[in-house]
Amino acid sequence: MGRQTGSATGKRKRSSKKDNGGADRPAKTGPKEKSILPQKRHYRQRAHANPFSDHNLTYPASPAHIDWSTHYPAFAGTGKTPEFADVGCGFGGLLIELSRQFPETLMLGMEIRVQVSQYVQDRIAALRTTHSLQPPPTDSLPPSDASPSTSPTPGPYQNISIVRANAMKFFPNYFPRASLTSLFFLFPDPHFKVRKHKARIISPTLLAEYAYALKIGGIIYTITDVEDLAEWMRVQLEGCVLFERVEEEELRKDEAKGKILDAVIGGTEEGKKVERNGGKKWLACFRRVEVARLAS
Ligand SMILES: C[S@@+](CC[C@H](N)C(=O)[O-])C[C@H]1O[C@@H](n2cnc3c(N)ncnc32)[C@H](O)[C@@H]1O
């Protein structure tokens, strides 16, 4: 079983649905930023969306049909595509937390709920505006597997974006083969009832899609406060030959991955809520491995 943090014990149901994990409380913001950051109360939304419903969404026919310059205008012409994908990104805490740590890495959140995805879109736009003239922090890092960049890094938050999308149905429409280095499933909806397990975002079929999009050596990060779901994800991932378990201690030997882990554990709205409520977290990470093809 993965790392456990926090003080509460045993299986638990999710706590108050009205607590949005601090999405209304942007940390370390000045008065100007506060005045234009969107307020969660203006984006009312049901707590859950049914991933099997027809959400009347439009999708790109394939990743090649996406014009990434509309998402990341400051990177237009660089040929870059997203390397980090946050599936079920909720209110966008991970993207915002990692954006300034990896200013040259494009990151994309996928979120099925319309109002929540709109909130994140507005939040990113507001952050881009308010930070447009500020330099990145001195501790920012290039992607761990990238060569040093020769061009100046665009301003803060230019490297994050979101799509309203049902990842269970259309994940491959967004990400080409071996394009991702990090894939996040942070506090995914637990779908407690057995008859609802098919709605869980980690399953053998979906793992094949995730493996296709990940580079060899890329990492899937999972974390949950629901013990039963942690066990479910572990069983699915350990049962897939395309992934191997990698311990937190090993990942932390790489400074960049250490920063990612800190954000995974404590940077999202849901993770902060679990901490406030004294809950436990189960972290488990898996590396995409190469599998030799059998000669026919
Ligand atoms: C419990 S929240 C966690 C949000 C965020 N990862 C965090 O840690 O704060 C799970 C999110 O996944 C979204 N979600 C559920 N199923 C999804 C799907 N099939 N595609 C995209 N997003 C989905 C939900 O709408 C919800 O916002």
Automatic annotation (TrEMBL):
Q: Which Gene3D superfamilies match?
A: Vaccinia Virus protein VP39
Q: What is its EC number?
A: 2.1.1.33
Top-level EC class: transferase
Q: Where is the composition biased (Low complexity)?
A: 141-152
Q: Which residues form the active site?
A: 189
- Which PANTHER family does the record match to this protein? 3-DEOXY-D-MANNO-OCTULOSONIC-ACID TRANSFERASE/TRNA GUANINE-N 7 - -METHYLTRANSFERASE, TRNA (GUANINE-N(7)-)-METHYLTRANSFERASE
Q: What is this protein called?
A: tRNA (guanine-N(7)-)-methyltransferase
